[in-house]
TrEMBL record, chain A:
Gene Ontology biological process: amino acid metabolic process
Name of this chain's protein: Aspartate aminotransferase
EC number: 2.6.1.1
Source organism of this protein record: Rhynchospora pubera
Keyword Transferase carried by entry: yes
Residues passing through the membrane, by range: none
GO cellular component: mitochondrion
Family according to the record: Belongs to the class-I pyridoxal-phosphate-dependent aminotransferase family.
Keyword Calcium: no
Domain annotation Aminotransferase class I/classII large: ranges: 86-452
Keyword entries, A-Z: Aminotransferase, Pyridoxal phosphate, Transferase
TrEMBL record, chain B:
Cofactor: pyridoxal 5'-phosphate
UniProt-recorded name of the protein: Aspartate aminotransferase
Gene Ontology MF annotations: L-aspartate:2-oxoglutarate aminotransferase activity; pyridoxal phosphate binding
Keywords of this entry: Aminotransferase, Pyridoxal phosphate, Transferase
InterPro entries linked: Aminotransferase_I/II_large (IPR004839), Asp_trans (IPR000796), NHTrfase_class1_PyrdxlP-BS (IPR004838), PyrdxlP-dep_Trfase (IPR015424), PyrdxlP-dep_Trfase_major (IPR015421), PyrdxlP-dep_Trfase_small (IPR015422)
Gene3D superfamilies named in the record: Aspartate Aminotransferase, domain 1, Type I PLP-dependent aspartate aminotransferase-like (Major domain)
Keyword Repeat on entry: no
Superkingdom of source: Eukaryota
Species in which this protein is naturally found: Rhynchospora pubera
One record GO biological process: amino acid metabolic process
Length: 459, 426
């Protein structure tokens, strides 16, 4: 370290800095240095007595501020807006018709039963997580009578929601699989490339979304995956593609399956919306089960963030379907070695809630009803928005709004149109034109329709 | 079962697509070459214990607190906090850096209620997945921003420390710590190693209740270590997994950290609430890095968040709510302090009893170290072969390095344990 780097800087405490600091603290968000004009005067009343040798500066003094997360930035801007008409369509979390977050009834019940059970303890879970949760999760996505499950060919480990499952799976592949390239659709969830890079894989891309049709670029997909080196890993969104909402048809899935298997490409599914997309858990698992049924191997990252509303509890599972039970056992043992140096063992609470619900026929049934209600509300918002634009005679083909599926709609609006809508109509959404249908309700939908109409006709 | 029937009836409504062509071409697994991983040495002990049918069996391998009946404990303050939390709050995502309330309270605990560093906002801190997660985030951060740096790790240490920095791809060195002959601290070798390490080296220090040895430097020794660190400009990274749990007093257990802070060090600190709040499975912890100024702290925090994002996006909310509910409420915090002292006192009492029993049995060896050491673990000094005898002949389970988890010792089994140890060591 440079010994000449004597640092006796202290912060001054202007009011604006305090306010900003409070905001920073409250949101836990990063803020740009331009807002915090921290002066470097000596701090006169320092109670800290520095020994003469305490002058070496921080070894991290050259760390630059990370860019703000684009999605979080939307919410930050939304929160700052004083307009009573503002609408937040950036958030990737379900909102009720009243615009409120939702804790499912069945989750509240499950929590209560956990609290009321005095025999419950909070000890460490095994590295692989709650065993019952793992079994139930595998059944949920693969189907209880899946041959892979019957034959004990599935290694399932509890992970921290979808993100954690992707990361653990990625690190496992980087250590044990012969190919480092992972093919990721364009566009995809912003965090995918980062997860896989940190895991030690090499993100590549394949065409997916066709802006001209606002649908699937199937031909581009086929071409790109045909060109991928044999054995490459391919990331597939199981349903309700994020951010486009564009899914392959069952026929297209079958063709994708054949393509992948014929070229020995390894499928890695990301399932964040099972049950949330169509309202049916089985229908939303169709693509995954298609692949499992052919006897081949695959990875599957499962999240309960949206479909059980367990967002902050970080509940998910990684399953690796293997050719044999023997291989699955060895794979599971190696997954432990990935997890242990990351966080030792997964959090208990959310997985306990899920297990409580999935193991009880009554609670399970209740869950499917609440889940369908969420999915139906979103589907009805899609229909209403489409109808509203039709009624206004908004130029363009807006059928993609009802063709796309899941929480998000890729409107096709460009950056300028989005900025216009934010400025003039207080509509907050990501600049790629993605809107979260979950943020819509009958009160704010007319405003969105107005905003889209205005943006399209004036810009 | 009704559940299966429900699933099956859903399944029959599936689409009519049946895979025809393109059955997976590969005949063998892509993962057939994967070797079975070696069992975790610590967790494997509990597995073996559970499998043992003997009524006399004793588990002193587990690093989790047990009451005097050998039962796991949920603190009253935790139960009350959970009652308050249930159903009241939503389960929305926390910010990437975690719960700001929990972080605030964690920092007060580690750095002091009235710490100027907190007031000056000089600490970059994020909620982490207990101690493991905090160490891993720091290791990843170290790798990204000081890619040429290494980490010095004490011998011995918690085995997972090595795994963490290895997976973060940060090269490791070791420094002397435990003195086998005295079963105490090898202070002179420790100081030698600190002196010989290149200036600006990164050191992993156990803030209190060293795991696995229970051997901590004295206050005076900590001062000397801090002084030497200053002249070498080393970076001190504290792993504090037992604050409150060691002496019964969290302020006292943070003494080493406070000494370093007084000396002007810019430290890093991993905090865990697994043991001192009994929150093991909730994975509640905090990583903090003391910076030069607020602006730097904001930048560092933003980068720590960037490392958490591709690992788990944002940390789990439940454990954080429990921690902030307890520490943020004066009554609950008072209750917690009582309960954590209760746990520490029980362990200290068991140390005394175990040592007395061994001395009464006329053991020729010195067992002073049992009461000299502190925290959950006692490094008995027994060899792996002696440990194996304890397991095979007496159904006593511990890790083969001779580490005894005092939390597993009760008034009910301390006599049996003392006798067995005496038998295999006499």
């Amino acid at each position: 370290m440079d010994e000449a780097n004597m640092r006796v800087d202290r912060t001054s405490k202007s009011d604006s800095e305090r306010r900003l600091s409070t905001l920073v603290r409250h949101l836990g968000a990063s803020c740009s240095p331009s807002h915090t004009s921290i002066s470097t005067e000596r701090f006169e009343n320092s109670k800290i007595s520095l020994s003469p040798m305490a002058a070496f500066g921080s070894v991290f003094a050259n760390v630059v501020q990370a860019p703000e997360d684009p999605i979080l930035g939307v919410t930050v801007a939304y929160n700052k807006d004083p307009s009573p008409l503002k609408v937040n369509l950036g958030v990737g979390a379900y909102r009720t018709e009243e615009g409120k977050p939702l804790v499912l009834n069945v989750v509240k019940k499950a929590e209560q039963s956990l609290i009321n059970d005095p025999s419950r303890f909070k000890e460490y879970l095994p590295i692989t997580g709650l065993a019952e949760f793992n079994k139930l999760s595998a059944k949920l996505i693969f189907g209880a009578d899946s041959p892979a499950i019957q034959e004990n060919r599935v290694a399932t480990v509890q992970c921290l929601s979808g993100t954690g499952s992707l990361r653990v799976g990625g690190e496992f592949l980087a250590k044990h699989y012969h190919e480092r390239s992972i093919y990721i659709p364009v566009p995809t969830w912003g965090n995918h490339p980062k997860v896989f890079m940190m895991a030690g894989l090499k993100p590549m891309s394949y065409r997916y979304y066709d802006p001209s049709t606002r649908g699937l670029d199937f031909q581009g997909l086929v071409e790109d995956l045909n060109a991928a080196p044999e054995g490459s890993i391919v990331l597939l969104h199981a349903c309700a593609h994020n951010p486009t909402g564009v899914d392959p048809t069952p026929e297209q899935w079958e063709q994708i399956r054949q393509l992948l298997r014929s070229r020995s490409l390894l499928p890695f599914f990301d399932s964040a919306y099972q049950g949330f997309a169509s309202g049916s858990l089985d229908k939303d698992a169709h693509s995954v089960r298609l692949f499992v049924a052919d006897g081949g191997e695959l990875l599957m990252a499962q999240s309960y963030a949206k479909n059980m509303g367990l967002y902050g509890e970080r509940v998910g599972a990684l399953s690796i379907v293997c050719k044999s039970a023997d291989v699955a056992g060895k794979v599971e043992s190696q997954l432990k070695l990935v997890i242990r140096p990351m966080y030792s063992n997964p959090p208990l609470h959310g997985a306990s809630i899920v297990a409580t619900i999935l193991r009880s026929p009554e609670l399970y049934h209740e869950w499917t009803v609440e889940l369908k209600a969420m999915a139906d509300r979103i589907i009805s918002m899609r229909q209403e928005l489409f109808n509203a634009l039709q009624a206004k005679g908004t130029p363009g083909d807006w059928s993609h709004i009802i063709k796309q599926i899941g929480m998000f709609t890729f409107t096709g609006l460009n950056k300028e149109q989005v900025a216009f809508m934010t400025r003039e109509y207080h509509i907050y959404m990501t600049s790629d034109g993605r809107i979260s249908m979950a943020g819509l309700n009958s009160k704010n939908l007319p405003q969105l329709a107005d905003a889209i109409h205005a943006a399209v006709t004036t810009m | 079962m009704a559940f299966r029937a429900m699933i099956s009836s859903h399944a029959t409504q599936q689409s009519k697509w049946v895979p025809s062509a393109g059955v997976a071409r590969q005949m063998s697994s892509w993962f057939g070459h994967v070797e079975p991983a070696a069992k975790d040495p610590i967790l494997g002990v509990t597995e073996a214990f559970l499998a043992d049918p003997s009524p006399d069996k004793v588990n002193v391998g587990v690093g989790a607190y047990r009451d005097d009946n050998g039962k796991p404990v949920v603190l009253e303050c935790v139960r009350e906090a959970e009652r308050r939390i249930a159903g009241n709050l939503n389960m929305e995502y926390l910010p990437m850096g975690g719960s700001s309330h929990m972080i605030e309270e964690s920092l007060k605990l580690a750095y002091g209620e009235d710490s100027d560093f907190i007031k000056d906002k000089r600490i970059a801190a994020v909620q982490a997945l207990s101690g493991t997660g905090a160490c891993r985030l720091f290791a990843d951060f170290q790798k990204r921003f000081l890619p040429d740096s290494q980490i010095y790790i004490p011998v011995p240490t918690w085995a997972n420390h090595h795994n963490i920095w290895r997976d973060a791809r940060v090269p490791q060195n070791t420094f002397h710590y435990y003195h086998a002959e005295t079963k105490g601290l090898d202070f002179s070798s420790l100081m030698e190693d600190i002196k010989n390490a290149p200036n600006g080296s990164f050191f992993l220090l156990h803030a209190c209740a060293h795991n696995p040895t229970g051997v901590d430097p004295s206050e005076e020794q900590w001062r000397e270590i801090s002084h030497l660190f200053k002249s070498k400009n080393h970076f001190p990274f504290f792993d504090m997994a037992y604050q409150g749990f060691a002496s019964g007093d969290p302020e006292r257990d943070a003494k080493a950290i406070r000494i370093f802070l007084d000396d002007g060090h810019l430290i890093g600190c991993a905090q865990s609430f697994a043991k001192n709040m009994g929150l093991y499975g909730q994975r509640a912890g905090c990583l903090s890095i003391l910076c030069d100024n607020e602006m730097e702290a904001v930048a560092v925090k933003s980068q720590l968040q960037q490392l958490g994002r591709p690992m788990y996006s944002n940390p789990p909310v439940h454990g954080a709510l429990i921690v902030s509910t307890i520490l943020g409420d004066p009554e609950l915090k008072k209750l917690w302090l009582q309960e954590v002292k209760g746990m520490a006192d029980r362990i200290i009492g068991m140390r005394t009893t175990l040592r007395e029993n061994l001395e009464k049995l006329g053991s020729p060896l010195s067992w002073e170290h049992i009461t000299n050491q502190i925290g959950m673990f006692c490094y008995s000094g027994m060899s792996p072969e002696q440990v194996d005898r304890l397991t095979n002949e007496y159904h006593i389970y511990m890790t083969r390095n001779g580490r005894i988890s005092m939390a597993g010792v009760t008034t009910g089994n301390v006599g049996y344990l003392a006798n067995a140890i005496h038998e295999v060591t006499k």
